[in-house]
Amino acid sequence: MSSSSFSTISASARNLHLQVARTIAQGILSGALPQGSKIPNEMTLCDQFGVSRTALREAIKLLSSKGLLRSKPKIGTTVTDKTNWNFIDPQLLEWMDGLENSKVFYQQFLGLRKAIEPEACALAAKNASAEQRIELSDTFQKMEEIAKDFDHDRWAEVDMHFHRLIFLSTGNDFYLPFGNVLATIFMSFILYTSEDTGVCIKERRAIYVAIMAGKEEQAREASRFSLL
């Protein structure tokens, strides 16, 4: 993709600006629109996308709020350095899906998980409420049922919910955004990193048992082992 290869957007008027924003964002995230480069002017982009100035301006505003673009009078709109990009924005993570360089993002995401998920499991073992433990138990029972008659898509969905529950059960509000990030990227991540079913359920069981028993260190170590 180059800055002159955008094609007409086909979408309802209600989400037209989101389609434009997604297309530009994927060009940036893939490197097709390099950091520091200037995107075409408003009139050119409106013609390329086949949208109104209002829709385009809303798209540019959205991308600017996520740190991808910066507009300045007499200079135009440029792609910012990636140090400004809001990588934990759920919408930005969703836009990464399907890119040719998704593998790089998934590897980086795994690095983030390794850094914070073991501690989240330990906190959940310590702080999860009775209601959260009940929901975690119900979710794990579904995982065991799916593991017996394996369905990859169903497994990914329930496994994502299992991990999100752990982050929501930490008792620490600063972990909540990461739970939401997991909900956005986890489906694609699990499908990308397909594991052996038997091994996977054993690892989840170790985490589950430790959390339900309130054993912080055991939960932390079980999580670390599952992320190796």
TrEMBL record:
Q: What's the protein name? A: Transcriptional regulator, GntR family
Alphabetically list the UniProt keywords: DNA-binding, Transcription, Transcription regulation
Q: What Pfam families does its record include? A: FCD, GntR
What PROSITE patterns does UniProt report for this protein, alphabetically? HTH_GNTR (PS50949)
HTH gntR-type domain ranges (all copies): 14-82
Name the Gene Ontology molecular function terms of this record. Answer: DNA binding; DNA-binding transcription factor activity
Keyword set includes Transmembrane helix: no
InterPro entries annotated for this entry? GntR_C, TF_FadR/GntR_C, Tscrpt_reg_HTH_GntR, WH-like_DNA-bd_sf, WH_DNA-bd_sf
